[in-house]
Specification:
This protein has about 180 residues and is mainly beta. Helix content is about 0%, strand content about 40%.
Length: about 180
Amino acid sequence: MPLSAPAASVPSASAGFPHRRPPSNRPLLERGASSAHVAVTRVVDHPGGKVERFLADGSRLILFKNATSKRIFADGLVVVSFPNGDRKHTEPDGRVLYFYAQADTTHTTDPDGTQLYEFANQQVEMHYGDGRKSIYFADGTVKHIQPDGTEEARFPDGTVQRTGPGADAHEQRAR
């Protein structure tokens, strides 16, 4: 049911949510992608087929029998590459980035528990530790979901739609 009041006069169910799309973490996955041009200073063969290479830049490259590799950088970055193309980065600050190759999706978990999902269709989702979620769609629509199930959708044309247990169901179009 459309309301005649301007959008700013209606209390927002999305208070505390960012209204801008978060920046992509995908460029962070490029770090540590290759060790091809780093000299090997020592090689250690471990039981079970694991091989550890010590590299001139201070990093170590561990090659597993199942074709998984793990590179541990001197600054604490750990990059695991899986045979299916997936990659996992664990940053020194505790942030974990996981790239799912088949789905072309990146999942980032920050030390505070916030999770960022970046999908191939340009959809981005933020999941917060307190149960809130923000979904940013490629068409500019933004949806905020509260832990109680209350949802607020803001469409590119200015329409705001609120539904769920914590909101009166209504639509409003900005003038």
